[in-house]
Specification:
Blueprint: H1 5-52, E1 55-58, E2 61-64, H2 66-75, E3 78-84, E4 90-92, E5 110-118, E6 121-134, E7 146-155, H3 157-192, H4 194-204, H5 225-272, H6 277-309, E8 317-320, H7 321-338, E9 342-346, E10 352-355, H8 357-374, E11 380-387, E12 391-399, H9 405-410, H10 432-440, E13 446-452, E14 455-463, E15 483-486, E16 489-492
Parallel strand pairs: 1-6, 9-11
Antiparallel strand pairs: 1-2, 3-4, 3-7, 5-6, 6-7, 8-10, 9-16, 11-12, 12-14, 13-14, 15-16
Helix pairs in contact: 1-3, 5-6, 6-10, 7-8, 8-10
Length: 493
C-alpha cells in the first residue's frame, strides 16, 4: 500500500490536515462550551445577587420582599429560587432539597455550583451565601453579620442544544474539509510529482544503444537535482565502460587473430606438400611457440581479472629497494644498450621494503621494460629513488614523443598502445601497465604518471618497512655496457 511517492505524500498531508481539523474543532468546541457556561453562571450570579438585595434583617429575623423576588423569578430565566435563613430553613421557594446542597449558609460569602436533572430538565444551580443587610441600619454596628443563602437554578437545555448543534457542525465540517483536502492534496501531489514522472519516462527510454545524458526536466524539484546530476554521471560512466568493453573486445580480437592466423598458415603450409621430417619438426616448433605466446596472453588476462576481483591476499616479504631494482634492471640492461639509451641511476642502499616480492618485481619489470622499449633511441632512461621520514619514492623516466595528458590515463587501459595501427601486435599486447595498476594496491603502493617536457615519469611511492633487518647490497647498481662514472650515479651507453 502507498508504493507511489504521490500517494505517500497525499496520505501524509491528509493525516496532517485531518489532525489539524479535528484538533481545531475540539479546541473550538471546548472554548464555546466554556463561554456558554460562563454566560449561564454569570446570569445565575446576577439573579442571585439581585434577589439577595431584596432580603433584609430586622430584629434577628430575615425579611423578604416577596413581590420583588417574584419579579426576579417571573421575568428572569430561572426555574426556581430559594431563600434560606441562617439555620437553613427555606423561607421562599420550594421547600424540597435541590441539587444536593447543604442548606445551611456558609460562615462567609461563597458560591457553590451544581448540575443535576430536575424533573427531566438539565439544570445548573448556584448556592450563593451572603451577609444580609440590617433594616434601617439597626444593629449593623454592634451585631454579628447575618449569613443567609439563595439557591437559584437555570435550565441548561438551550446551552446543550447550542453545543450539540455546534458539535454536529464541527464533525460535518471536519469530514467535508478532510475529503476536499484529500482531493486537493491528491491533485497537488500529482502536479508536484509530474517532473518525476517525466524523469522516469526518460530513464525508462535508456538502453545500451542510446546511452546519452538525460535532457533537463522542467520544474524538477531542487531536492532531485543532485540525483539527476549523479544519474547523468552514471550514464557517462556506463557509456565509457561499454566503450572500453567494445575496445577491449576489438583489441583482444586483434591480439588473438595474429597468432591464430600464423598457426593456421603454418599448419596449412606443412600439410600442403610433402615435407621432410625436419621440416615438420620446424613447423611444430613454430606452432608450439605461437601456442605458448597465446597461452601467456590468456594467463596474463586471467591474472589481471583475478587481481581486479579483490579475491587475492599476497604474502609480504622484507627486501631492499636497491636489490629489487637491480634484479629487474638485469633483465633489460642488454636491450637498453642495444637502443643506445643513456641510463642514469640514483638508488640509495638504505630503503627497506615490506611488500609481496613477486608482485613488486613484476611491477618493476613492467615499468622498466616499458621505459626501455618506448624510450627514444639514444634518449634518456633515469631511475631515481629518495626516502623521507617514513616514505620512499621511486621514479622511472624515459624520453618520449607523441604522448599527451589524455594518454596518461589511457595507457593504463588493457591493450592500449600509442601506436593506433598496432604494428607491434604479437610482440606487445599492451597489458603491462594494466597489470601494474592492478598490482600496486596489493603492494600498498601508489602509482602516478606525469609528463615533464619530453620525459614520461612513472612514480611509485610507499611506506618504509618498520623492520630494518634487511641486509642491503652495498654495491652500486651498474648497467651492462661501457660505463662512465659520475658522482652519486652511473651512466651506461
Amino acid at each position: 500500500m502507498f508504493h507511489s511517492l504521490k500517494d505517500r505524500l497525499a496520505a501524509g498531508a491528509f493525516l496532517i490536515l485531518a489532525t489539524v481539523l479535528i484538533a481545531s474543532g475540539v479546541v473550538l468546541y471546548f472554548w464555546l462550551s466554556e463561554e456558554l457556561n460562563d454566560q449561564l453562571r454569570e446570569s445565575l450570579l446576577v439573579v442571585a445577587k439581585g434577589a439577595s438585595a431584596q432580603v433584609a434583617v430586622e430584629h434577628d429575623f430575615l425579611e423578604i420582599y416577596h413581590n420583588r423576588v417574584d419579579h426576579y423569578l417571573e421575568d428572569g430565566p430561572s426555574l426556581f429560587l430559594q431563600v434560606l435563613n441562617a439555620r437553613g430553613v427555606v423561607l421562599y421557594g420550594p421547600e424540597e432539597g435541590l441539587a444536593g446542597f447543604d442548606y445551611r449558609p456558609a460562615s462567609t460569602s461563597a458560591e457553590e455550583w451544581r448540575t443535576f436533572d430536575w424533573n427531566g430538565t438539565p439544570v445548573l444551580a448556584l448556592k450563593y451565601t451572603f451577609s444580609a443587610v440590617h433594616e434601617y441600619g439597626y444593629g449593623s454596628e454592634q451585631d454579628t453579620p447575618y449569613h443567609a443563602a439563595i439557591i437559584v437554578g437555570m435550565d441548561r437545555t438551550p446551552v446543550l442544544h447550542t453545543l450539540a448543534g455546534f458539535r454536529t457542525t464541527i464533525i460535518v465540517a471536519t469530514c467535508v474539509g478532510s475529503v476536499l483536502g484529500a482531493v486537493l492534496l491528491k491533485l497537488l501531489s500529482s502536479l508536484a510529482t509530474r517532473p518525476l514522472d517525466e524523469l522516469a519516462r526518460k530513464i525508462d527510454a535508456i538502453d545500451h544503444q542510446h546511452l546519452t545524458p538525460l535532457a533537463p526536466v522542467r520544474h524538477l524539484p531542487s531536492e532531485c537535482n543532485s540525483v539527476f546530476d549523479e544519474l547523468n554521471l552514471l550514464i557517462n560512466r556506463v557509456e565509457q565502460e561499454l566503450l572500453r568493453e567494445r575496445t577491449f573486445t576489438s583489441n583482444i580480437s586483434h591480439e588473438l587473430r595474429t597468432p591464430l592466423t600464423g598457426l593456421r598458415s603454418t599448419l596449412e603450409v606443412s600439410m600442403g606438400q610433402d615435407k621432410r621430417p625436419e621440416d615438420f619438426f620446424k613447423s611444430q616448433e613454430v606452432c608450439l611457440q605461437i601456442v605458448l605466446e597465446t597461452q601467456s596472453l590468456v594467463d596474463t588476462l586471467l591474472r589481471m581479472r583475478r587481481l581486479e576481483s579483490g579475491n587475492f591476499t599476497p604474502e609480504k616479504e622484507e627486501a631492499a629497494l636497491q636489490e629489487c631494482v637491480q634484479a629487474s634492471w638485469d633483465n633489460f640492461s642488454e636491450r637498453a644498450g642495444q637502443r643506445n639509451l643513456i641510463c642514469e641511476w640514483e638508488v640509495p642502499d638504505d630503503i627497506p621494503l615490506h611488500v609481496p616480492l613477486d608482485l613488486f618485481l613484476t611491477v618493476l619489470n613492467n615499468l622498466i621494460e616499458n621505459a626501455v622499449e618506448y624510450a627514444i633511441a639514444g634518449g634518456i632512461l633515469r631511475i631515481q629513488a629518495t626516502r623521507a621520514s617514513d616514505t620512499w619514492t621511486l621514479s622511472i623516466a624515459n624520453s618520449q614523443t607523441g604522448l599527451n595528458q589524455e594518454n596518461l590515463q589511457q595507457m593504463f587501459e588493457p591493450f592500449w598502445r600509442g601506436d593506433q595501427s598496432r604494428a607491434a601486435t604479437g610482440t606487445h599486447a599492451g597489458l603491462g601497465l594494466s597489470i601494474v595498476q592492478s598490482m600496486v594496491k596489493y603492494c600498498g603502493l601508489t602509482l602516478e604518471s606525469a609528463l615533464k617536457g619530453d620525459l614520461l615519469i612513472m612514480t611509485l611511492q610507499g611506506r618504509l618497512a618498520e623492520s630494518t633487518n634487511v641486509i642491503p647490497n652495498t654495491a652500486q647498481p651498474i648497467a651492462t655496457g661501457p660505463l662512465e662514472s659520475v658522482t652519486g650515479m652511473a651512466k651506461a651507453r
